[in-house]
Amino acid sequence: MERIDVVIVGGGLGGLACAYCLAKEGIQVLVLERGDHPGSKNVTGGRIYLRPLKPFLPELLDEAPLERLVTKEAITMMGDGSSFTLQFTSEKFREETPHSYTILRSRFDKWFGERVMDRGGFVVPQRRVTELLKEDGRVVGVVSEGEEIPADVVIIADGALSLFAQKAGLRGPLPPRNAAVGIKEVVKLQPEVIEERFGLKPGEGMAHLFFGSITHGAFGGGFLYTNSDTISLGLVIGIESFLKTQPPTETHRLLEEFKEREEVAHFIRGGELVEYSAHLIPEGGRTLLSRPYGDGILVVGDAAGFALNMGITVRGMEFALASGCMAAQAVKRAKETGDFSASSLAYYEDLLRESFILQDMETFRDSLEVVENPRLFNFYPRWLCNILEEIFWIGEGPKEKISSTLWRGIKEGIFNIAGLKDVWRFRRI
Ligand SMILES: Cc1cc2nc3c(=O)[nH]c(=O)nc-3n(C[C@H](O)[C@H](O)[C@H](O)COP(=O)(O)OP(=O)(O)OC[C@H]3O[C@@H](n4cnc5c(N)ncnc54)[C@H](O)[C@@H]3O)c2cc1C
Question: What does the buried/exposed string (b/e) look like for 1-18 if buried means 16 or more CB atoms within 10 Å of the residue's CB?
């Protein structure tokens, strides 16, 4: 095959965004995707924040097949047979430049692949890349299905495990501590039923997170997102802490228990299960990559470890899209000089540093240490639910003053060494 400008390994958000921006500039680009179509293997929950992406893909996102505008946020702390929910809504979420939408990736990525083709890029599904082509230590293309495909630049966009960033010597394997397993189901319901159950206006949606006893003490939690005519729900569980869970259990059993909890069951009652999937997620924290570029190669999205678990939200999609666009900018600049060496492509890292990607990764670099605190999953949800249960309960005997119940609870939960240590730790996020 003749040398082309750019070949991209993986047609997820990072790879497609890069291809879209390159094709717009008239640069030849080929995306190789192992799935039946872009998004066919994707498990994302999920919700996407649009504002960080406005400078990168303004026109594209206006017409994208997004699901529902998120106008309601909820977090539920699960005790053993009780729970406490914080719900938040704001007119700000409805502003002209929207804040966030729920998304179904099998639909979105397929559509995005078609937009890349409209711009003149090539997206080839069912094509697995098996090797990097190298010459004198620099990357000069890929091998797919036994065929050598030479290219000036290879973009690695193969997701969380990224065998190819490893093969290029830019990172090691994803350590269990930085990895979580995500399991998801999609349940079909009529749009009016979704709106009635969640108290939503037509076209508006909810993002609901759950943590506490549902993960049996492991680091992680549950999620539920309302799509147009489906609900995505599932669990994300830190692999290292899950392996230590006693007694050992299985992730699908945790998902069944989660769905059986009344706090969740009433939302999905009568729905039809239309999809089940599982995938690995990088949890962010300190970056896994020595550098996201090399001679003839750039790494984007999850492959570069650009993802953050901020406790109240998981962010990876806007990182993948924006990093793909920045990689395209670096390639465009390198093409102008005909220099695809590491020192030329290092411009990509400059762009990342100036953007929200490396700045947010830096601000929240300790978030993993804070949110993986076992007391957040074991102690606090039960503690809070127990206090509230006592406050709301009227038994046979006389009732204690509410202030005394509260004070006793605060002393037990916060005013002791472990509680104060946790408060101190929280200042890091
Ligand atoms: C359960 C779950 C919930 C999540 N929720 C959210 C959320 O609410 N918000 C959010 O922002 N993020 C969320 N994420 C994270 C988000 O999904 C990722 O950050 C995002 O998909 C990263 O995009 P990417 O393009 O880097 O990788 P991916 O989307 O994983 O794409 C990689 C692509 O490469 C292809 N590929 C891999 N190897 C090869 C090969 N050898 N040859 C050819 N193709 C290959 C794969 O098939 C895939 O299509 C969630 C993830 C999970 C698993």
Answer: eeebbbbbbbbbbbbbbb
The DSSP secondary structure of 294-321, one letter per residue, reads ETTEEE-GGGGT--EE-SS-EE-HHHHH
| Other CB atoms within 10 Å distance of the CB of residue 376 | 19
pTM, to two decimals? 0.92
Closest CA to 406 of 389, 387, 393: 387
320 forms beta bridges with none
**pLDDT tops 60 at residue 286:** no
- The DSSP string of 347-392 is HHHHHHHHSHHHHHHHHTTTHHHHHT-HHHHHTHHHHHHHHHHHHH
The Cα 297–Cα 349 span in angstroms is 12
Helix (H, G, I), strand (E, B) or coil at 107: helix
DSSP reduced 3-state for 3: coil
Largest CA distance in the chain: 86
CB 34 within 8 A of CB 128: yes
* Residue in the block written with tokens 């717009």: 24
Residue 110 CA to ligand 1 center (angstroms) comes to 13
pLDDT one-digit tens code per residue, 374-422:
888 889 999 999 999 999 999 999 999 999 999 999 998 888 888 888 8
Ligand 1 atom index nearest CA of 315 = 11
Which residues line ligand 1 at a C-beta cut-off of 6 Å? Answer: 9-15, 32-35, 41-48, 128-129, 157-159, 182, 184, 234, 236, 279, 281, 301-303, 307, 314-317, 320
Q: Is the peptide bond before 203 cis (omega within 30 degrees of 0)?
A: no
